[in-house]
């Protein structure tokens, strides 16, 4: 294909992806109110914890804030609903330029990254109330807590995004290993730092009295790290065997 044909193909793929996104946003806009009620549950829990003497509530600071919040939520959910459409358009555009081996790696990475990302968001949902509760404890006594609705949603969205990406990081480590950037042994050498970071994160994210939840969350992150190191070491072994089979035998002395 010429450059012009590639641009026409790209425009076609982008148009289909955009239509899918708009349809997903329209569908998602209908469920924005239940989503708002769902993500504000932690704030309701904080209000119950602090009692009737302290005012805790979500507020809208501008005339357009309620509509702006619903559009933001519809965009996020619309991206998820339309993911099969725009992911297929991206894949259909780049697949002709990939080798069979590269296609296999891409399918494997996407197949591992997507479930891990959603698993991270599920964990983030259970962790979120504790984060909101911990942050509320820093407010002085007899002070009101007014959460701007749009700002609060941005915090929740970014929090879920960060947790989801944290669960996908092992896949990126394996991808770097496949690309030859880092070896499996180098990944394994950082196990102490990985365990420390996972433990600190789990301790902050879970209730202080719930040691089981802390150990469970830290254990999941550590297992994912060691799984990435193990898979990378297997790839290194296969790479060494392949290279040794290609190299010619040494001449006899």
UniProtKB/TrEMBL annotation:
InterPro entries assigned: TatC
One Pfam match: TatC
Subcellular locations according to the entry: Cell membrane; Membrane
Transmembrane segments: 12-31, 69-91, 103-128, 155-179, 191-209, 215-235
Keywords, comma-separated and alphabetical: Cell membrane, Membrane, Protein transport, Translocation, Transmembrane, Transmembrane helix, Transport
Membrane topology, from the record: Multi-pass membrane protein
Highest taxon in the source lineage: Bacteria
Function according to Swiss-Prot or TrEMBL: Part of the twin-arginine translocation (Tat) system that transports large folded proteins containing a characteristic twin-arginine motif in their signal peptide across membranes. Together with TatB, TatC is part of a receptor directly interacting with Tat signal peptides.
NCBIfam families in alphabetical order: tatC
Family: Belongs to the TatC family.
PANTHER family given in the database record: SEC-INDEPENDENT PROTEIN TRANSLOCASE PROTEIN TATC (PTHR30371), SEC-INDEPENDENT PROTEIN TRANSLOCASE PROTEIN TATC, CHLOROPLASTIC-RELATED (PTHR30371:SF0)
Complex and partners: The Tat system comprises two distinct complexes: a TatABC complex, containing multiple copies of TatA, TatB and TatC subunits, and a separate TatA complex, containing only TatA subunits. Substrates initially bind to the TatABC complex, which probably triggers association of the separate TatA complex to form the active translocon.
Protein name according to UniProt: Sec-independent protein translocase protein TatC
Lineage: Bacteria, Bacillati, Actinomycetota, Actinomycetes, Micrococcales
